[in-house]
Amino acid sequence: MATPQDRVSYKRLGAFAFPSLPLAAMGLPLVVQLPPHYVAHVGLSASVVGLLFMAARLLDIVVDLCLGLAMDKTRTPVGRFGPWMLASGPLLAIGAWFLFMAPPGTSALHAGIVLLLTYIAFSMGTLSQLAIGATLTTDYNERAKVFAWWQGGNIVGMLLVLAIPVIVHQMAPPDATEAQTAALGVQGMGWFIILLMPLAACVSVWLVGEQPAKAAAHKSELADFSALLKSKATRLLLSTDLFSSMASGVTGGLFLFMLGGIMGFGGGASLLMLIYFIAGLLGAPIWAKLAAKVGKHMSLFIVMIYASLFQISVLALPHAGTSFGPVPALVVTSVGLFIGGLAYAAPMYLMRAMMADISDEDLLATGKDRTGLLFSLVTLTGKAGYALAVGVTYVGLDLVGFQARLGGANEPAAIAGVTAMFVVLPVLLNLG
Q: What does residue 324 show for φ and ψ, rounded to 5 degrees?
């Protein structure tokens, strides 16, 4: 049972989670909407897009490590991590402008540079927010609640940004093509980030009240990385996060192609994705309560099994134009995705709560507060997983001959290849 001083007020929890809205609104399109947008609207090939997004994210990994080292040495009146959160606001807004508003004909070089710079700003925001969350409490169960709020904010941000294409689709003029409507939806997502991120960063730093460092600043060196990686718990957590992130990245990267193209739901795929993430938001408290009863490790194991079973069950969902008895295909598929989506939120927030526990253990063992460095490592594995997923799936689209542009016809072999990637890869990664 958490003591009064360990409990975090709802005001601080809300302020802490607030930046998750624009950060998730950036993170989701980087995997799901922007790669298809750069193929269908900007005009780059699927292979080039996949390699660009993968390379930018992998290069950003080096930045994460540097940021982690720098944050642990930062000492200001608003804390170690607050200044980095504040700086991320305007920088991410600028990056969103150039990334989401890219016109047709934008070169691969220009897109790559913008991607890398945007990822750097995105890293500043996500890493500083995670590190702040680790300082809010030292209680085991209360910490799970803190990161459940963080993931809840992520899902709300995803829901809000996913609602934008749905609204645009409904409000589009009758003569607008599918491609034009899709492009306007992506640009609307960009405006959401541009307007909200600077505000969220300021409100969070002002209301959260970051706790002071538990140890004096020390000169972090590369040796700190090897010292942290000597811990078996750290290595296991990082490898699990890598595989889990890649599994989520494969699902997200192929979602619109699978549901919209292969299963025939077209623009309705955005609505189905919205349902999937609503389920994730509603499921987050369930997994947090389970973690309090059986522990975070066992709860994570159960979630991975659940997610794998859902991925396989996608094969049983009906395609558009068919019916499941008297029930339309869209309704059945919506229910199936809702059930599967209940597990969406859990792996990420459980593993970050576990990393906060590892940070406490490291402090006790060494006397060094390396919170920023530890969270840079788990941010690294998360980004690497999503980067590898985008690279593998988009190169895979070209290899199987899948026509990614809207309206393109596909051979049965191409459809079978994408279906196999969507179902088999996440299962192998989650169970690996």
A: -110, 80
Sequence-ordered list of residues with C-beta below 8 angstroms from that of 15, at least 6 positions apart, any chain: 203, 204, 206, 207, 208
Please state the separation of Cα 88 from the chain's center in Å: 17
| Other CB atoms within 10 A of residue 319 CB | 12
DSSP 315: G
- Other CB atoms within a 10 A radius of the CB of residue 169 amount to 19
Query: How far apart, in whole angstroms, are the C-alpha atoms of residue 353 and residue 41?
Result: 39
Nearest to 348 by CA among 407, 299, 295: 299
Give the number of other Cβ atoms within 10 Å of residue 420's Cβ.
12
pLDDT values of the chain reduced to their tens digit, one per residue, 432 residues: 455 556 888 899 999 999 999 999 998 888 778 888 888 888 888 888 888 888 887 777 778 778 877 887 888 887 888 899 999 999 999 999 999 999 999 999 999 999 989 989 998 999 899 888 888 887 777 877 888 888 788 888 988 888 888 788 778 777 777 777 888 889 999 999 999 999 999 999 999 877 766 655 455 566 677 777 788 888 999 999 999 989 988 888 888 888 888 888 877 787 888 888 888 878 888 888 888 888 888 999 999 999 999 899 888 888 887 776 777 888 889 999 999 989 887 888 888 888 888 888 888 888 777 777 788 788 788 878 887 887 888 788 888 888 766 555 778 888 899 899 999 999 999 886
> DSSP states of 260-299 as a string?
IIIS--TTHHHHHHHHHHHHHHHHHHHHHHHHHHH-HHHH
Distance CA 129, CA 176 (A): 40
What tokens does 113 get? 């540079």
**Sign for the pseudo-dihedral over CA of 207, 12, 25, 359:** positive
Site of tokens 């542009």: 405
Six-digit token string for 368: 């060094």
Burial per residue of 50-75, b for 16 or more beta-carbon CB atoms within 10 angstroms, e otherwise: bbbbbbbbbebbebbbebbbbbbebe
User: What end-to-end distance do the CA atoms of the chain give, in Å?
Assistant: 34
